[in-house]
Structures are given as structure tokens and as C-alpha cells.
# Entry
Amino acid sequence: KEEAVVEEVVTAVGGADVAFNDGVYEGSAQGHVDQITVKVTVEGGKIAAIEVTAQNETPAIYGSAAQPMIEKIIAANGTVGVDAVAGATHSSEAIIGAVEAALAAAL
# Structure
């Protein structure tokens, strides 16, 4: 059931013209090692902040992906068109998936 929600969000979320409902939303997705959980803050209909609240990935690999992914997702106001960081694909995709899961509740 959770996968269906994430798939629906993948096709519907993101972009400069998308307005989300304001609030703080949580989502999780499987990384390379474990679940990555994020808290997404929406203000004025746009993604204002993303905080990773739980992760247990390999530090060097996760560290290379986290901040660039967060910055790209905020800049894009969603995950549409956001590519994974080379060398940290699983962590990048988990951050994307966790944000999509969180934003499913913001639509």
C-alpha cells in the first residue's frame, strides 16, 4: 500500500507551480543500509526546509548526498527532475522517496 502512495506522488508532486498545504510532514524510505526519515516543512505553499531526522547510512556516502539532495529538492519545490548524487545513488533515492512520502500528505 505504501509503495502505491509513493508511485502516485512521483507522478504528481513538485515543480514551481505546485502549491502544497502548509505544515510539517514526515516520510521514510529505504536507503542502502536502513530507513531514512525526513521532516519536510511547507510554508506559503512551497518547501521551506527538509531535515533528515533518522538515518543509518555509511557516513561518507550519505554525507556526500544529503545536503546536495536537500538543496536540489527545495530549489525544485519537489522531486521532479532531481537526479541522484553520483556514488550515493541509494542514499539519494531514499531521500527522494522519503520526501515524496512526506509530501503525499501535503497535497
Observations:
- The helical segments are 2-12, 59-76, 89-104.
- DSSP finds three helices and three strands in the chain.
